[in-house]
Structures are given as structure tokens and as C-alpha cells.
Amino acid sequence: MTRLSDFPIATRWPAAHPERIQLYSLNSPNGVKASIMLEETGLPYEPHLVDIGNGESHLPEFLALNPNGKIPAIIDPDGPGGEPLALFESGAILLYLADKSGQFIPADPARRWETIQWVFFQMASIGPMFGQVGFFNKFAGRGYEDKRPLRRYVDESKRLLGVLDGRLDGRRWLMGDDYTIADIATLGWVNNLITFYEARELVAFDGFAHVAAWLERGLARPAVKRGLRIPAKS
């Protein structure tokens, strides 16, 4: 039988509570998907800070769990069949935790797949495009003399915000009255765009009234407030 201690990552980030889900992450827009979901579901877990700024996600112990070298990643010591399950990719983690807990994903097959498509929308579009805005607006890319890349990603981010705004017109959450993993996947990225990436005016965020109201509702949730800070650098 495989044990948590058999995973190389457990030597670098030892577990104080090996019976709990182990979260290896940072409170980045991708990382908080997992921490918010864990806080929302109430599943017992133990967070471990992976300092990506210091290259910790590229240490051999982390790469043994996620060869792509990205956070978040988890190990569930009580996975399918009672065996430990290691997972990376935030979308896969959300789906797994939704199924494990029976929360935040509809039981009806059609609505389940409708929810999953909005998770994929975040993974394939919102995250990559907003991330590029952050790079070209706040980080190394802001010094580039050629501003065409920034304009391209700003324009695409505005378009994506328009898609979200249309979806949220007349809906409280992306799936209507039901708060789901689609919202959890997306909240951190939208919040990051207008705060940490400092792009609120750049993308004309206040013109997307339905998105702004949805974000305010999401940020008011106690589990979201907690999840956005886990695991934070000290």
C-alpha cells in the first residue's frame, strides 16, 4: 500500500497531519482555486507554501508530483479505493474535490457538463489572457517598447469580460442560483486582474456591471476570504 511518506514531496514539505489532504500551493490566481474549494467544502486539509518566486516548484521533490512545475498540487491520502491520489492542474483538482465532497457541481448530467464547460473557459481563456495582461502591464513586459502585445491582450481580456458579463446578466452565479466550481475557478483571476495586476482602468472593468456585482458577491463569501490568503507568504 502506498503511503503519503512514499511521495518525495513529503520529505521537502512534511505533513503534520498526514491523514488530511495535502495542498502544495501559493495564493496565486491558480493556487486559490484549490484553497477556496477546500475551505468551501470543509474537507480537512493541510496547506504547504510553495514559493514559486524562489523556484520551489522546480525542486525535484515538487517535480516528482507535478512534472510541469506549476502550483497547485494535492495529495489525498484517502483517494479512490482508499489509496493516496496525487493530482496537479487546478481544473482537475476542482473536479476531484467536487466529486469527493458532493458539493459545488450539479448532479444533473446536463448541468454538470454545462458547469464543466465554464471551468474550461476559465482554464483555456480567462487565465492565459489575464496572465498576459499582468505580464505586460506590471511585470517584465511593461518595459517593452513595442506596446502591441499589451494592446492585444487587453483587447482580448475585455472581450472575455464581455462574455462573462453576458453570461451573468440575470444570473447570480455562472450557473444561475447555484454557486459552483465555475465561479471558484474564475473569481481569483478576475480579482487578480483588477488588484494585483493593476489593470482595472486598462480593461475598463467598471463597465462590466454584472461581472463587478458577481465578484463582489464572491469576495463576500467567508470561505473565499479565507482561501484567498492560503497559503500566503509570511
Automatic annotation (TrEMBL):
InterPro entries: Glutathione-S-Trfase_C-like, Glutathione-S-Trfase_C_sf, Glutathione_S-Trfase, Glutathione_S-Trfase_N, GST_C, Thioredoxin-like_sf. Its EC number is 1.8.4.-. PROSITE patterns: GST_CTER, GST_NTER. Keywords: Oxidoreductase. Residues 108-234 form the GST C-terminal domain. Residues 18-105 form the GST N-terminal domain. CDD domains: GST_C_Ure2p_like, GST_N_Ure2p_like. The keyword Lyase does not apply. This is GST-like protein. The lineage of its organism: Bacteria, Pseudomonadati, Pseudomonadota, Gammaproteobacteria, Lysobacterales.
